[in-house]
């Protein structure tokens, strides 16, 4: 393994493997429409290097203006340092960092020189914090939070180039990822983890699970270790999250492909290629654990890339991988309810040119009622965004795809291409408005948008899209269960200081609030949309004036957007949830660079608490 593999971003890793989606019929239709008549009444600019649609699908907001008045805080300036900044009248403190003890046995386990010993790796808070949700259980506050991946040079300080050299080091990496369930409590000193709480738990790459739904037990998920195909082990690359209506946690398996490698020959099927699996794994797992060796266990990757449900109230419960929700690089899982009571889960597949999905249960949910089958028996749909700003959810069935149901679920990407789903600019988090039937999806960026294999389309209108946009849709009849919808772009990120065309962004982007690469998103209880970024924080060139990654707040009605928090340089802002009394927001700071927050040259991913100094609610 080379040094570069462990350092590479997941997007660069995808680019190396380059599993480009097949050009589909919809792309061809849009391309024909452009050349024939322009788009949406002729506002189209179509020139060298930048095929773009006009501004008519953007939220009409009038002249550019600094956000003001719409938010209960004064927007802050960009950050370029290694610290965290919040508005005047707000404060923050660190809740927990990678390596902090969940049980008293692990107190002091972390050291900047040696990391965390293998025996303690699953008794401390996990690495690279990401999606999280807070649950109230018997009057206690329990946070379930993802640990997405690892930073081997920080995690394995003794290993050459940060590459695992033996089974113990691989185990160390496996056990510092996955999910942490932890009780938190507030004292005079603010929030802290309740060490030794009976709810504290780590779930990682070696934790026993079960699979349910139509693909469970199928030949596609059977392995030597589990010939029945019902008992997968481990959840990995846990990115975004979700919360069920019945109070359980949904953890979403994203870039699972990077953990698999081959020590010998393997069959390079369409499924293997489309999911970017093969070659050398990022972390040398395959060299020390045959489960991750494609040449020994070709079906093991099919057991990952699912939405997995965890009951935070029962530390003995076995996590369940829900095959009915489809297998892809899951970002998050946003659960809402259809008008008739069916459960609806919106999901993005974060890779260049992949799709947005929704699952609709066959059964109905009533508060306090049975939940059996609600995430194992339903229909998976994929989104088609038409260029007239309507859209439809296309059912993925044996009839529409020519694939078996098991194949549809395990290879959902292939099924989506067959029905003509719209290629998107890397769908990240989806969040539904709390008071009306409307959902928002962050399309973070797409360096490969444009050209013949992934032409622009109306919802993804910029070639070489380095800034990203947020698309939103309103289901027909105000019913999340409907198969039709209308859509528009809530914001197109950009840099108005550098560009005066669509790369300058939509009208609600100004010199004072600009950002790139929207990623995490969550609506608060007041109907404001919190937006977290994971982008280029060089503050140079196309990104000059945008500073470090940040968290902004958007008003969905006026379109106004204001900057609330800036992260340390090098960090991504990941995950957001609120305390039960809504007076504290918990925010994830993933892979900070430089000296924050320990000052020892080994900065650790952390969850911070943010509150208002006057004690008022914060969302
Ligand atoms: Fe793990 Fe797409 O972010
Ligand atoms: Ca993300
Ligand atoms: Ca991202």
Task: Report what the structure shows.
- The chain has 619 residues and is mainly beta.
- It has one domain.
- Helices cover 11% and strands 29% of the residues.
- Strand 23 (518-523) and strand 24 form a beta hairpin.
- Mean pLDDT is 91; it is low at 25-68.
- The site of MU-OXO-diiron (FEO) has 6 residues, from loops.
Question: What descriptive keywords fit this protein?
Answer:
mainly beta; 619 residues; nine-stranded antiparallel sheet; PhoX; binds calcium ion; binds MU-OXO-diiron; single chain; Transcriptional initiation protein Tat; TAT_signal
**What spatial form do the alpha-carbon principal axes imply?**
globular
Count of alpha and pi helical runs: 10
Helical amount: 10-25%
Strand order of the largest sheet: 14-15-16-17-18-22-21-20-19
Low-confidence stretches: 25-68
Give the DSSP E fraction (strand runs of 2 or more residues). Answer: 25-35%
Named once each, the bound ligands are: MU-OXO-diiron, calcium ion
Distance between the termini: 45 Å
Number of domains: 1
> How large, in whole angstroms, is the Cα Rg?
23 Å
Q: Major sheet, described briefly?
A: 9 strands, antiparallel
The counted number of beta strands is 29
Overall pLDDT metric: 91
Organism: Sinisalibacter aestuarii
Pfam family, one: PhoX
Protein name: Transcriptional initiation protein Tat
Write the layout of secondary structure elements.
Layout: H1 3-7, H2 10-17, H3 25-37, E1 45-47, E2 50-52, E3 90-97, E4 129-137, E5 140-147, H4 152-155, H5 167-175, E6 178-187, E7 190-193, E8 201-203, E9 210-212, E10 238-243, E11 249-253, H6 270-274, H7 285-288, E12 307-310, E13 320-322, E14 330-337, E15 342-349, E16 356-364, E17 378-385, E18 390-395, H8 398-401, H9 405-410, H10 412-419, E19 427-432, E20 439-443, E21 469-475, E22 484-492, E23 518-523, E24 529-533, E25 550-554, E26 561-566, E27 572-578, E28 584-590, E29 606-612
Bound molecules: MU-OXO-diiron (FEO) and calcium ion (2 copies).
One calcium ion binds at residues 428, 444, 519, 534.
């Amino acid at each position: 393994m080379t040094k570069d593999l462990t350092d590479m971003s997941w997007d660069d890793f995808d680019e190396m493997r380059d599993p480009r989606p097949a050009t589909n019929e919809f792309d061809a239709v849009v391309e024909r429409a452009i050349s024939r008549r322009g788009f949406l009444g002729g506002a189209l600019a179509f020139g060298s290097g930048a095929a773009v649609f006009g501004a008519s699908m953007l939220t009409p907001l009038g002249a550019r203006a600094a956000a003001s008045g719409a938010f209960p805080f004064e927007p802050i300036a960009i950050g370029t340092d290694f610290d965290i900044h919040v508005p005047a009248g707000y404060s923050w403190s660190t809740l927990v960092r990678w390596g902090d003890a969940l049980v008293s046995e692990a107190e002091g386990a972390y050291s900047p020189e040696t990391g965390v010993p293998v025996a303690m790796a699953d008794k401390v808070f996990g690495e690279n914090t990401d999606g999280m949700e807070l649950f109230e259980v018997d009057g206690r506050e329990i946070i379930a939070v993802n640990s997405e991946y690892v930073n081997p040079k920080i995690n394995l300080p003794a290993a050459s180039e940060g590459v695992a050299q033996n089974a113990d080091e691989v185990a160390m990496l496996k056990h510092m990822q996955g999910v942490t369930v932890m009780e938190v409590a507030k004292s005079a000193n603010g929030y802290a983890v309740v060490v030794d709480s009976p709810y504290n738990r780590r779930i990682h790459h070696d934790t026993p699970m079960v699979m349910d739904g139509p693909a469970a037990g199928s030949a596609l998920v059977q392995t030597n270790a589990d010939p029945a195909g019902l008992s997968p082990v481990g959840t990995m690359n846990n990115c975004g999250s979700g919360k069920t209506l019945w109070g359980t946690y949904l953890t979403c398996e994203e870039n699972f492909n990077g953990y698999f490698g081959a020590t010998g020959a393997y069959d390079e099927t369409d499924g293997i290629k489309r999911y970017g699996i093969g070659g050398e794994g990022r972390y040398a797992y395959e060299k020390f654990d045959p489960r991750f060796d494609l040449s020994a266990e070709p079906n093991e990757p099919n057991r990952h890339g699912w939405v997995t449900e965890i009951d935070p109230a029962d530390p003995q419960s076995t996590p369940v991988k829900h095959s009915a929700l489809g297998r892809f690089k899951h970002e998050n899982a946003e659960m809402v309810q259809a008008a008739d009571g069916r459960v609806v889960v919106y999901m993005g597949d974060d890779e260049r040119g992949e799709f947005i999905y929704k699952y609709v249960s066959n059964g109905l949910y009533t508060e306090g009622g049975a939940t059996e089958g609600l995430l194992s028996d339903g229909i998976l749909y994929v989104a088609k965004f038409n260029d007239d700003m309507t859209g439809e959810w296309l059912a993925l069935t044996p009839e529409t795809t020519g694939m078996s149901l098991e194949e549809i679920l395990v290879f959902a990407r292939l099924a989506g291409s067959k029905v003509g789903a719209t290629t998107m600019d890397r769908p990240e988090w989806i969040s539904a408005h709390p008071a009306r039937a409307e959902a928002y999806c962050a399309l973070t960026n797409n360096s490969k948008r444009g050209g013949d294999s992934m032409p622009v389309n109306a919802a993804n209108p910029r070639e070489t899209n380095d800034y990203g946009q947020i698309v939103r849709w309103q289901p027909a009849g105000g019913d999340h269960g409907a198969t039709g919808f209308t859509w528009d772009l809530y914001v197109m990120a950009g840099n108005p200081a550098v560009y005066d065309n669509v790369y300058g962004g939509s009208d609600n982007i100004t010199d004072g609030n600009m950002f790139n690469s929207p990623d995490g998103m969550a609506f608060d209880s007041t109907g404001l949309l919190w937006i977290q970024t994971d982008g280029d924080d060089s503050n140079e060139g196309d990104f000059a004036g945008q500073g470090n990654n940040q968290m902004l707040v958007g008003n969905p009605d006026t379109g106004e957007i204001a900057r609330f928090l800036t992260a340390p340089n090098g960090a991504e802002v990941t995950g957001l949830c609120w305390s039960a009394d809504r007076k504290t927001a918990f925010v994830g700071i993933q892979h900070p660079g430089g000296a924050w927050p320990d000052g020892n040259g080994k900065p650790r991913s952390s969850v911070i608490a943010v509150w208002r100094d006057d004690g008022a609610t914060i969302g």
